[in-house]
Amino acid sequence: xxxxxxxxxxxxxxxxFTTDIEADVIPRGLSEDVVRLISAKKNxxxxxxxxxxxxxxKWLTMAEPVWPNVSYPPIDxxxxxxxSAPKVKEKKGSLDEVDPTLLETFEKLGIPxxxxxxxxxxxxxxxxxxxxxxxxFKEKLxxxxxxxxxxxxxxxxxxxxxxxxxxxxxxxxxNYFAAxxxxxxxxxxxxxxxxxxxxxxxxxxxxxxxxxxSGQFERTLIVAESSSSVTxxxxxxxxxxDSNQLHAAIVELVALDDAxxxxxxxxxxxxxxxxxxxxxxxxxxxxxxxxxxxSKISWTQVETGSAITxxxxxxxxxxxxxxxxxxxxxxxxxxxxxxxxxxxVHVGKNTKSTIVSKGISAAKSKNSYRGLVKxxxxxxxxxxxxxxxxxLIGDTSSANTFPYIQVQNSTAQVEHEASTSxxxxxxxxxxxxxxxxxxxxxxMIISGFCRDVFNKLPMEFAAEADKLLALKLENSVG
Amino acid sequence: xxxxxxxxxxxxxxxxxxLTEQRDAYLKTLIATAKAAVPTDLAxxxxxxxxxxxxxxxxFPSTRQEDWRFTDLSALLSVNFxxxxxxxxxxxxxxxxxxxxxTGAQIVVVNGVFNAELSQLEQLPEGATVGSLRQLSxxxxxxxxxxxxxxxxxxxHEVFTALNTxxxxxxxxxxxxxxxxxxxxxxxxxxxxxQDTLAQPRCLVVAETSSALTLVEDFWSTGDEVRLTxxxxxxxxxxxxxxxxxxxxxxxxxxxxIGKTVITQARDSQYIGTAVDFGAKLARHNWETYQxxxxxxxxLYGLGAITNAQHADTHSLVALIHPYGTVxxxxxxxxxxxxxxxxxxRVVVAQKAQQTSASQLNRNLLLSDKARVDTxxxxxxxxxxxxxxxxxxxxxxxxxxxxxLQSRGIRAAQAQRLLIYAFxxxxxxxIPLESLRxxxxxxxxxxx
Lengths: 478, 448
Fold this sequence. Notes:
Chain A is an alpha/beta fold. Chain A has helices at residues 2-9, 32-41, 46-60, 100-108, 138-143, 151-157, 159-165, 176-184, 425-433, 438-449, 451-454, 459-472; strands at residues 23-25, 84-86, 122-128, 131-135, 147-150, 189-193, 202-208, 219-224, 229-237, 244-247, 250-255, 260-267, 279-290, 296-303, 308-311, 314-317, 323-332, 337-340, 343-346, 352-362, 366-375, 383-393, 398-407, 413-422.
C-alpha cells in the first residue's frame, strides 16, 4: 500500500489537466433568450422549451438557500457560461468519428471509450462539459430493450418517456439550484429499463468539466419499470482552475413495482488547493421515487472532491413495502466544505430505510451530515435506522450532524445514532508495535471505518475509493 | 397597546409582507406592555435600555425561522396581553404545592412578583441571601455583586429573554457566598393568575466558589385561561459550585409558557438539572449551558408528557469551550392525543474543548396516531480528542414487551401503564426530592 500511496503523492490531483479543444460556447450570462438559445441549439421539441422557461421564471422568484453550513462568496450568475460543447462538424455515426482529442482525454482519465479496449462489462456515457460525447454498448443494451443514451437524444427519440418522467421526482421549483438546472440543463444520461428486465451490465456516466468559465448543469433520469433492476455508476473530475465553477445537477430515479435501482457515485471534482483557491461548487439535487410496491432505491456515494458539496440524495418511499438506502463516505481536507446527507420520506405502509453515513474531516475542512427522516401519518409500520459516524483528523477541522426526525405515525420505529471520534494514539501504537508505519495504519483504520459503505460499492469502485481516500489524506496525519 | 379594531384590520391582510408587519407590530405592543409594567423602584436603566436595543433588531418568531420551525406562535397574535399585576392567592390553593422537604425555604412568586406573605424563609443559613430583588435593591454591596450577573449571561440575545429583561417587575435572588451551603432544598413557586395576562418571572442564582444548593422551580397557574408566561432563570456557578436543579412546568391548559434557563459554569462546577413539562397549551424551554472554565460537569435530564392538543418544545444547548468537560443529556417525551413534541439538542464542542466527553440521548414514545414528534439531536464538533455520541429513537410501546407482561397475567392496559411508568421514571428518579418525585409519578400512573 505504502509504495502505491507514495507514487501517487507526487500528483495530488491527477485529473487536473485541461484538454485543448475547440468549443462551441455561448456568451456569458442568463436570460430568457439564453434559455431559448440552449433549447434551440439542442433542437428541442416545444414541450422542453416550455419546461425550461417555466423553470427559469420560477428561478427568478427564488432566493439562494443560506441554511447550509457552508460559506462562499456570492455567485455571479451572469458571469457563467451556460452552454459549452466541443465543436463538431457533423453528427457522429459511430465512435470512430469522435474527435480523437476527446477519446484521448477520457483515455487519460482511465475511461477507455472504444469498446474493444474496454475490459470491464460496463456501458459508459461520457459527458464532456455540457454534452454527451459517446455512449458505449448501446446496441447490445438495445437487444434486451434497455435504453441508455444521452438525455438530449432521449428528448428526440423518446419524447413521450421524457415528458412523462422529467421533473416528476424533482419538480422545477423544488429548490433554487434545481430550478436553475431545469432552465439550462444541457445534457446528461437517460436510462430506461423495461418490464421484467435485469440490465445485463452495469451502466455508468462519466462527467468531465473542461471549460474554466462554464457551469455544468447535467440531468440524469433513470426509469425502472416493474420487476426490473439496474446498477448505475457515476464518476466526475475537473481540471484545476483558480476560479470556482458551479456544478448544479439533478438526478431523478423512478422505480416501479418490484424494481431495484442501485446508484453509486464517486465524486472527485477538483477541490481547490490547500489555500482554498479554486474548486467546484457541487450543488446537486438527487432524488429517487419508489413509486411501486416493494421497489428499492439504494444510493451509495463517496464524496472526496469539490470545494463545496451541497447534496442530499433522497428517497421518497410511496409504494407499499418500498425500501430506501443511503450509504455515504464524505471526506473533506484542506478548506473543503461539505454539507451532505439524505432525506428519507416515508409515505407508504411498511416502508423501510437505512442510512449509514461516515464523515472524515481533516485539516481546516468542515464536514456536516444533514439528514431528514420523515414518517407521514399513513406510513404504518415504517422503519428507519440511521447511523452517522464522524472522524476528526487534526483539531482544526469540524464535524457536525444535523439529523431531523419528524414522526407522525405511532407505529413507526425510528432510530438514530451518531458518534464522533479520532484516530487514537493507542491505535497507532498498536500498529507501530506490529511494524506498520503510521501512514499505513491510518489508511487501514480509515478503510475499516468506511467498510460498511465500501462494501456496497461495485468491486472496481470500492478498490478505487479506498485508494482515493488514502491519497486525499496524504500528509494530513502526524 | 393597539386596540382590537387595529388588530382586526391587520388580520384581514394575509400576504407575507403584511404578516411580517403584523408580527413586528405585535412585538412592539408586547414590548410596550412589558415596559409599562416596570416598577419605578426597579428601573435598572442600563440593563433595560440594552435589552430594548436588542429587541429593535429582533422580530417576533415565525415558523420560517429555524429555531421556531416546529413551534408556531401565531395563535398569540390574536391575543392582546395585559401585564399581570402583583396579586395573591389563597393559602389553601398553594398548600398542596408546598414540598415538605423545603419547609422554611419556600418562595412564592405571583404574576412575576415576590409575595412576602406566602413565602417562608426562616430555614436559611446565615450569609446566604434569598429574596426579592426589589427589596434587596437597597443593599448596595449586594447589588454590585449582582450587577455583573443579572442579564449578562450568554444567550440573552434572544427575543423572549430580552422581552423579560425589558419588563420584569421583580426577580428572585439567591446569592450563596463562598463555601455557602444551603442544606434545605429551596422551592420557588411561580404562580400565574389572570386572563390574557403576561407574567414575566425572573430568577437569578449566584453560587460563589465551592457553594452548594438544591433548587426546585415550580411553574403553576390557577385555572385554564389564556396567558403568556415568559420566564427567565439565570444561574451562575463559580468554581467548584454544586447545583442541583429541578424545573417543573405544570401550568394550566390555556397557558403559553416560554422559559429560558441559562447556566454559566466556571471550572470544576457541577450542574445537574431535571426539567419536567406536563402542562401548558404550548411550552417552549430554552435550556442553555455555557462554560467559563475547564472540567465542568453538566447533566441534563428532561421529561415531557403531553396529550390532547398540547405542544412541548425543548431547545437545549451545551456549549463547551474549555477542556475536560463532561456532558450527559437524556430527554424523553411521552406524546399522546394530538400533541406535538419538539426536541432540539445542540452540543457544541469548540477547538479548545479537548478531552470532552459528551453523550446525548432523546427517546420518544408515540402513543397515538395523531401525535407528532420532531427531533433533532445536533452535534457540532471542532476538537478532535473528544468522545461524543448522540442518539434518538421514536417508537410506540413494544408489542413483545406488552406480551411478556400479559403472559404473566397482567392485563394489556395495565402492562401499557407499567411500561409508560418505567419510561418516565428513568427521568423522574433524577429528582432528589421524594415528595415531588412521587407527585409527578402519580401523574404518570394515571396516564391512560
